[in-house]
Amino acid sequence: MAFEDLLEDPVIQKYLHELVGPTGMPVAAAPPDGEVTDEELAEELDLELNDVRRALFILYENDLASYRRLRDEDSGWLTYLWTFEYDNIPENLEEEMYRLHDALEDRREYERNHEFYLCEICSIRFEFGEAMDFGFECPECGSPVESMDNNRLVDAMDDRLDDLEDELNIDADA
C-alpha cells in the first residue's frame, strides 16, 4: 500500500498521531520518497529539529522508519539518512488490537471477580476490602458508600471484545 493511501485512512492517521503526538504529526504525515536527513525535514516542514528527531526516533522504535549513517571524511560528523517504512503499519495495528484484546479480557475478569462500592458524592470507587477498611464510608467526604452494579461496564467490555474478536478472526470458544 502506498504512503498516500495509508495516510488517507483515519485509523492510520489516529495511530500515527497517538505515536508521535501533535508536534511530530507533520513528520509522520509527510513522508518523503527516498532518504532524507532530519535537518532537511525540519527545514522543509518548518519545525524545530528536536521535534523532528523525536518523531523520527518514535517511528524508528515502532519499525516505521529506518536510518543509515554516513560519516563525513573530513569532519568525522555522522549524518543520518532516514527512510520511512509505512508498509509495517497494518501489522503494527493488528498487534495493538491483540494487546487491547488481552488487556480488555483481563480487565473484564477483574470487574467480574470483584465487588465494588461507590461514593456518589466524590465518584470514588472502592473494592469491597477497601470499603470495609473504611467502614463503608468515603474517606474523602465521610458519606456512606453504596454497592455498585458494574454489569453495564462488563456488558460494554463483552461487546467490545466481540467486535475485536470478529475483526481479528479470533474464535472466542477456542
TrEMBL record:
Species the sequence originates in: Natronococcus amylolyticus DSM 10524
Domain-related comment: The winged helix domain is involved in binding to DNA in the preinitiation complex.
Recorded superkingdom: Archaea
GO MF annotation list: DNA binding
Protein name (record): Transcription factor E
Quaternary structure and partners: Monomer. Interaction with RNA polymerase subunits RpoF and RpoE is necessary for Tfe stimulatory transcription activity. Able to interact with Tbp and RNA polymerase in the absence of DNA promoter. Interacts both with the preinitiation and elongation complexes.
Family the entry assigns: Belongs to the TFE family.
Signal peptide range in chain numbering: none
Name of the gene: tfe
Function: Transcription factor that plays a role in the activation of archaeal genes transcribed by RNA polymerase. Facilitates transcription initiation by enhancing TATA-box recognition by TATA-box-binding protein (Tbp), and transcription factor B (Tfb) and RNA polymerase recruitment. Not absolutely required for transcription in vitro, but particularly important in cases where Tbp or Tfb function is not optimal. It dynamically alters the nucleic acid-binding properties of RNA polymerases by stabilizing the initiation complex and destabilizing elongation complexes.
HAMAP family linked: TFE_arch (MF_01909)
GO biological process, one term: transcription initiation at RNA polymerase II promoter
Alphabetized UniProt keyword annotations: DNA-binding, Transcription, Transcription regulation
Annotated HTH TFE/IIEalpha-type domain residues: 8-90
One Pfam assignment: TFIIE_alpha
